């Protein structure tokens, strides 16, 4: 019986130590985060920009949108213009519920959107798409997301290697965009 108690206390101590280490690492990490990915597309800059600025086109390249194409979606305003609002609601927990609004556009160069998550958790981020000429009819497109994380989200980011996963999803989406536009 004493051996069982020793094992139980050891396991509880180990779990407690892991939690304390995670808390310390999360507290020491920055509240702000930024993740960027980019790809070169064999199309002129204006063509790439005109495609990306239309949020409905995310159906064809965004890994996250493509996860549940049957999600309930609403669109308010003129797509591709500041103030356009795209909302989604899905039973799929990987998609959840949220909205994306075009905040600003620098014609042919940059689009900034605000993304707000409602379910399965509340949060938000700013997403920026920037296009630059890459020469010979090619375009470099950069996608950057940035936001703030509370202590619990910082712990979650550490435990799940979330920045690495988000970056991989962004890279996959950009490669999908490249494939669509280069057809």
UniProtKB/TrEMBL annotation:
The reply to whether Transmembrane figures as a keyword in the UniProt entry is yes
Q: Which SUPFAM superfamilies match?
A: Bet v1-like (SSF55961)
State which residue ranges cross the membrane.
6-28
Q: Tell me the keywords, alphabetical order.
A: Membrane, Transmembrane, Transmembrane helix
Q: Which InterPro entries match?
A: Polyketide_cyclase/dehydratase (IPR019587), START-like_dom_sf (IPR023393)
What is the protein's given name?
A: Uncharacterized protein YndB with AHSA1/START domain
């Amino acid at each position: 019986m004493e051996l069982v108690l020793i094992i139980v206390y050891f396991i509880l101590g180990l779990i407690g130590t892991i939690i304390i280490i995670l808390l310390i690492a999360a507290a020491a990490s920055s509240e702000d985060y930024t993740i960027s990915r980019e790809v070169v597309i064999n199309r002129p800059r204006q063509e790439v920009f005109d495609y990306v600025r239309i949020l409905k086109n995310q159906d064809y390249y965004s890994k996250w949108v493509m996860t549940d194409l049957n999600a309930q979606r609403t669109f308010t305003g003129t797509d591709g213009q500041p103030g356009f609002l795209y909302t989604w609601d899905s039973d799929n927990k990987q998609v959840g519920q949220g909205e994306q609004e075009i905040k600003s556009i620098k014609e042919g160069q940059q689009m900034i959107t605000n993304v707000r998550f409602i379910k399965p958790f509340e949060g938000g981020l700013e997403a920026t798409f920037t296009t630059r000429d890459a020469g010979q009819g090619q375009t470099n497109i950069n996608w950057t997301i940035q936001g703030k994380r509370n202590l619990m989200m910082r712990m979650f980011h550490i435990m799940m290697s979330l920045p690495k996963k988000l970056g991989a999803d962004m890279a996959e989406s950009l490669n999908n965009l490249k494939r669509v536009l280069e057809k």
